[in-house]
């Protein structure tokens, strides 16, 4: 299936149903049913925070010490009102879907996305994994009431994902990107980088610090046609839409910090990959549609929402290129239903998919019109340089940017935050990720 054909099918599911500032479960359920009838596999995920003081654990957003992420100052009394509303909305969608006549080769899967990042810092990874196993094995014992209602609404067929696993999925995805592009000369794009650009529109870049020329150092970013600012689109965005933050800011999606360690944007990529993993094999001609139900009050939800659009942009563009053996070139569409407690916004990715494909179609047309091989190379090199300079100029310090290159920039220990061979930690966030293991009683999961 060609990219143009994928775009046509992606557009066929239509925009996310929006009826004003209020969420509409009936319209959302009908839109999902229409996608199922067209052969799409749909995954609906609700974000739920989980926190711990090192001994007990609670569903909800507690207050942590800003100087020490592992220190919980105030545990939550329960889920926030917005968190409860997210789960009730998903429950209503599930119930309306169940009432609609079943038709079509597609399917709908529901899952909980449990944000437990700071909790892991407090209790250690081993204890967190045991907690995850207990929640998954006995949801009725541990889930808060609103989440339990969703669990029953879907007949117990509720998948569980934990943010501890998102980073691993995202790391592997970006590892593959960094391993694919390895120019020898940093300022000259290689054939592999050109192939990536012509196939996806993405330009991986590395921001270098002249004061720290150590291999493995430097921030990795990825620019796409949609991360480059386009003023005519910004005016139409809802204040709850995360696109404007990228398109009016750094002009690229940052994937690492200045030391080369992966950051939360990579976790957001992993979350989308986890959602896609829940989608059954699509029927012939169908694609995968993800719907994220989020709010901006819970810190974990707010962080993921802020990055959901840019993560979706990279996953949609790069997944068929980086995982050709495990993912056919089927269309992807990402929807989001976001609320801040007072108003809601319905967000869809179809316009971004069309804009990216339009950019690629125009670029390929310019190349085809040139009969000279040298002129074709000049067109591609000129476009890559224009994007590189645009991202560099968006940086207040205008730190130099090079095309992503290796092998010096790629250090798996530094990138993953794992302890380096000498036993020192390569993570640069100031947190000891080897927190002591802690036994947790079952009663501590209850609100």
pLDDT averaged residue by residue: 81
Number of helix segments? 16
Number of beta strands: 13
Order of helices and strands: HHEEEEHEHHHHEHHEEHHEHEHEEHHEH
**Stretches where pLDDT falls below 50 for ≥5 residues?**
1-11, 410-438, 443-447
Using the alpha-carbon principal axes, give the shape. globular
Strand content: 15-25%
Helix percentage range: 40-55%
- Structural class determined from secondary elements: alpha/beta
* Oligomeric state as shown: single chain
Major sheet size, sense and barrel closure: 7 strands, mixed
First and last CA, distance: 49 Å
Radius of gyration: 22 Å
Structure in words:
- This protein is of the alpha/beta class.
- Helix content is 44%, strand content 17%.
- It is built from 16 helices and 13 strands.
- It has helices spanning 3-12, 25-37, 81-99, 117-123, 125-137, 139-142, 145-153, 163-180, 191-200, 231-234, 243-247, 264-278, 299-322, 350-369, 373-394, 412-416, and strands spanning 41-52, 57-59, 63-65, 68-74, 107-115, 158-162, 203-207, 219-223, 253-254, 288-295, 332-339, 344-348, 401-403.
- The strands form three sheets. Strands 1, 2, 5, 6, 10, 11 and 12 form a seven-stranded mixed β-sheet that branches. Strands 9-8-7-13 form a four-stranded antiparallel β-sheet, sandwiched between helices.
- A hairpin with a 2-residue loop joins strand 3 and strand 4 (68-74).
- The radius of gyration is 22 Å and the shape is globular.
- The protein starts with a helix and ends in a 31-residue tail after the last helix.
- Residues 425-434 have a biased composition (Polar residues).
- Residues 1-26, 414-434 are annotated as: Disordered.
């Amino acid at each position: 299936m060609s990219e143009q054909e994928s775009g046509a099918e992606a557009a066929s599911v239509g925009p996310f149903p929006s009826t004003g500032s209020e969420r509409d479960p009936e319209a959302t359920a009908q839109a999902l049913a229409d996608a199922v009838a067209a052969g799409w596999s749909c995954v609906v995920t609700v974000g739920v925070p989980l926190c711990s003081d090192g001994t007990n654990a609670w569903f909800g957003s507690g207050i942590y010490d800003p100087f020490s992420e592992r220190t919980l100052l105030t545990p939550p009394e329960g889920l926030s009102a917005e968190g409860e509303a997210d789960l009730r909305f998903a429950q209503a969608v599930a119930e309306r879907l169940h009432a609609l006549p079943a038709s079509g080769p597609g399917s709908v899967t529901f899952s909980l996305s449990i944000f437990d990042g700071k909790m892991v810092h407090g209790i250690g990874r081993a204890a967190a994994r045991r907690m995850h196993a207990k929640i998954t094995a006995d949801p009725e014992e541990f889930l808060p009431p609103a989440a339990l209602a969703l669990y029953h609404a879907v007949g117990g067929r509720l998948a569980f994902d934990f943010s501890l696993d998102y980073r691993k999925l995202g790391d592997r995805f970006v590892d593959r990107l960094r391993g694919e592009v390895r120019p020898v000369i940093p300022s000259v794009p290689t054939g592999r980088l050109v192939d990536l650009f012509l196939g996806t529109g993405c330009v991986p870049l590395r921001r270098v610090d002249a004061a720290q020329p150590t291999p493995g150092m430097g921030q990795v970013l990825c620019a796409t046609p949609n991360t480059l600012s386009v003023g005519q689109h910004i005016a139409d965005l809802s204040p709850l839409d995360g696109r404007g933050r990228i398109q009016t800011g750094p002009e690229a999606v940052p994937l690492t910090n200045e030391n080369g360690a992966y950051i939360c944007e990579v976790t957001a990529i992993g979350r989308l990959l986890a959602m896609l993993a829940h989608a059954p094999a699509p029927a012939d001609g169908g694609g995968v549609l993800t719907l994220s139900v989020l709010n901006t009050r819970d810190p974990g939800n707010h962080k993921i929402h802020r990055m959901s659009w840019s993560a979706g942009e990279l996953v949609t563009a790069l997944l068929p290129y980086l995982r050709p053996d495990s993912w056919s070139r089927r269309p992807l569409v990402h929807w989001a239903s976001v609320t801040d407690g007072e108003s809601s916004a319905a967000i869809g990715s179809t316009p971004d998919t069309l804009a990216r494909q339009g950019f690629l179609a125009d670029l390929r047309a310019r190349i085809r019109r040139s009969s000279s091989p040298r002129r074709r190379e000049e067109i591609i090199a000129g476009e890559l340089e224009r994007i590189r300079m645009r991202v560099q100029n968006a940086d207040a310090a205008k730190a130099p940017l090079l095309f992503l290159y290796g092998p010096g920039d790629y250090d798996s220990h530094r990138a993953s935050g794992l302890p380096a061979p000498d036993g020192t930690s390569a993570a640069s966030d100031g947190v000891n990720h080897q927190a002591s293991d802690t036994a947790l009683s079952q009663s501590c999961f209850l609100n």
